[in-house]
Amino acid sequence: AALSILGMCGGPMLGLFTLGILFPFVNWKGALGGLLTGITLSFWVAIGAFIYPAPVSKTLPLHLSTEQCVQLNITTTVGPQLSNRPALADTWYSLSYLYYSAVGFLGCVAAGIIISFLTGKQRGKDIDPLLIRPVCNLFCFWSKKYKTLCWCGVQHDQETEQDYLDSGSAWKQGVESALQNGLKQESLAQIPGYNSKDKSYSN
After folding, report:
1. Greatest CA span in the chain, whole angstroms?
2. Where are its TM segments located (predicted)?
């Protein structure tokens, strides 16, 4: 039961994060639609399996005994078997609970990509490169052309992360120096006998 619930909820969430990390062109409509699609698919198969449990033939291993096997020269007739089980009961609802997360994940990713293409892709140029990791750079043997194609428009090659950090530290140092200079000037201006215009002291 714990693995079923975790698969029903964790699969679509994994798909949502995968859309954000690997597919920066996915917009908010695609992300929301993909999440709802993944949740719907995983809950559908889980609730259907709870209402219509899988038959014994799909949950137990097959028998290897040949005691009751019918001989080839004997024909037997089997009467029709009536059942109230729907057509999906022996296929879709008989899916193992270990695959609930895979169903939610794949449904979320596929629906998110399709909805994003239908509603207008997110422009990669508008995304801060620090928010998206270029996972395709792990394949070092890829050429720059294929790496840039997999970036989905995110400008990873313009400024590196170190440039951002350096500019941020330089800005921080400039602010700190400005604050210190301002404090020093204010403290000097409050000293009796100090002339701020000539920057000199008088007795």
Report:
1. 130
2. 6-25, 32-52, 97-118
Beta bridge partners of 194: 201
What whole-number distance in Å separates Cα of residue 34 and Cα of residue 189? 63
CA distance 202 to 92: 94
Model confidence pLDDT, tens digit, residues 69-88: 777 766 555 544 546 777 77
Instruction: Give the relative orientation of helices 2-22 and 28-51 as an angle to the nearest 10 degrees.
Output: 160
Q: Which of 18, 26, 17 is nearest to 153 (CA)?
A: 26
Q: How many residues does the chain have?
A: 203
- pTM tops 0.70: no
Burial class (CB within 10 angstroms; exposed 0-12, middle 13-18, buried 19+) of 173: exposed
Q: Where are the alpha helices (DSSP H) in 120-151?
A: 144-150
